Amino acid sequence: MTSILVAVGVGLLLQTSPRLAPPASRLPPRASDLAPRVSRLAPPASHLAQPAPLAVQTGAGAVTVRELTYAQLDGSRNAATLVEPAAHAAPALSEAAGRVEASRPAILFLHWYGPPSPTSNRTQFLPEAVALAGDGVVSLLVDTPWTRERWFGQRDSAKDSEFTAQMVRDVRRALDVLLAQPRVDAARVAVVGHDFGAMWGALAVAADPRVTHFVYAAGTPSFTDWYLYTPKREGAEREAFVAKLAPLDPINFLPKIAPRPVLLQFGTKDPHVKNEAAKAQADATREPKTVKIYDSAEHELTFQARLDRLAWLREQFKLRK
């Protein structure tokens, strides 16, 4: 199996995702948009079956990036990227222990839905995963149904409730895969999610005690806040739809994550998460929590939000160079 060594600084990797306009794809799609599309991220099945790892040399150390697939609960296979310290790299350092540890912190990253942004897929968090792997962290970045650019307009809205519940199980299955990696430190396991990734992350983390830390970026209090973009529902139909999804509202699960630490991130100019909705979710989340509000930031948030996530995770995991 071949490896490729690429000399690239973490600082450069962290600057590869420019701020883009807010996603317009949550609006009702044009007829021409409904043609089936294949995820631009998904590699050929043969490549997934025998992945060639990419070795990245960062300022903190050597990192391996590997493409893989894993079996989901329904028997289908899902594509993912595993990012970890290279086999010859030094293990993670912990200030708390004051010694070199064999165990590795672990993070599951759940991406946003923001087409046509090139980061509206599992590559969104790749720069952060690479940076943290240099500190000894192993990360799993997974495909989701919203990896497909036209997923929102093509979804079966009559099954939104069932789909929402199933996604919680799928997220927890991804956690199974992450925690099956060698030498994972059970005391340092995080889920990081943005947009839909944050919302399903909240439900999964609330239900799964294996997760010790959570980052909730630009989620909204209820799935219906976005599901109702399209198709439109009015009157009694709308009320029944909202009531059916209400038990799955993320705002009801955020308080249940305590006493595990949570970082919440919101932008003041987010067209999909109003300031009142952001405040309600921050207020609903119990301590210990850290709330970061980014002035003039839209739904994709900012480069500073990325730096703050890295700093918070390093602090929580007690990592040191």
Task: Summarize this structure briefly.
The chain is of the alpha/beta class and 321 residues long. The chain is built from eleven helices and twelve strands. It has a single domain (52-317), classed as Rossmann fold.
Question: What class would the helix/strand composition place it in?
Answer: alpha/beta
Give the ordered list of helices and strands.
EHHEEEEEEHEHHEHEHHHEHEH
The neighbouring-strand order within the major sheet is 1-2-3-4-8-7-9-10-11-12
What is the CATH topology descriptor? Rossmann fold
Count of DSSP helices? 11
> Fraction of residues in helices?
25-40%
CATH class placement: Alpha Beta
The end-to-end span amounts to 30 Å
